[in-house]
Amino acid sequence: MTPRDAFHLAFYHFVVGSLKNLLRLGARVRVVSFAKIPTGACVMVSNHISHFDPPLLSGYLPRKIDWIAMAELFGTKWSKAGFTWLDVIPVDRHGDDRQALRTAIKRLEAGRMIGIFPEGGIRDGERSILSGAEMREGAFLLAAKADCPVVPVVILGSERLYNRRNWLSWRRAKVYIAIGDPIFPTEGGRKQLRDDTAAALIRWKDKLVETCQLTEDDLPHSPQERMREP
After folding, report:
1. Between β-strands 150-156 and 173-179, what pairing exists: parallel, antiparallel or unpaired?
2. Sequence-ordered list of residues with C-beta below 8 angstroms from that of 160, at least 6 positions apart, any chain
3. CB–CB of 144/166 below 8 Å?
4. In this predicted structure, which of 23-32, 97-106, 169-178 has the lowest mean pLDDT?
């Protein structure tokens, strides 16, 4: 490990650990591991329901995540430095970003885990991949090119943290995370990989609901709805 990599790793664990401790003030998190995350290269994909998802997943999944995020987050000197030290990969969402693709593949070749929200933004209801909405192809292009598995992850409840009342110690928000079986590329290519992942995310969401005895209210709602809750 180079000194630069060691610094990035230390900075990552400091930031993620600090955010995890902060989020514990407002959230009770339960992780249900239906399968183990591979130790080598893999692409983690998850539904996206709030701005709290990246720190929650980084804090509670057992491996370091190199996130792919929109380039707009790197707009200032300090944000660029911070996200770079966290090993976040910037991507231009409005074009063919070959540099981001090359960087991500290089990370996968080094055995790292890349994290992507394939919805391209915060989604709930019928717009959520948990309801069968379309996913962007980037994650599956990466996995197919690197010949590595996709790890499906489901997160529920994180949008409850938008409601300030849920930060009271006696009514902390309940957040649930499910880790599913890795899905490996086949001769069907990235389209088959995307279809298999889409089905898996819905299947693991249903399994999480069954295991934790969740209700319709625990499924993704918009931040606006959560903020209006008493």
Report:
1. antiparallel
2. 27, 166, 173, 174, 175, 226
3. no
4. 97-106
User: What is the number of residues in the chain?
Assistant: 230
Of the candidates 138, 90, 144, the residue with the CA atom closest to the CA atom of residue 118: 138
Determine contact, residues 173/160, Cβ cutoff 8 Å: yes
Taking only the tens place, the pLDDT of each residue in 113-159 is 999 999 989 999 889 999 999 999 999 999 999 999 999 999 999 99
Tokens of 63: 């491996």
Residue 144 is encoded by which pair of tokens?
């197919």
Residue 83: which CATH number? 3.40.1130
Domain that includes residue 173, residue range: 3-228
How far is the first Cα of the chain from the last one, in angstroms, to the nearest whole number?
50
In the chain, how many domains are there? 1
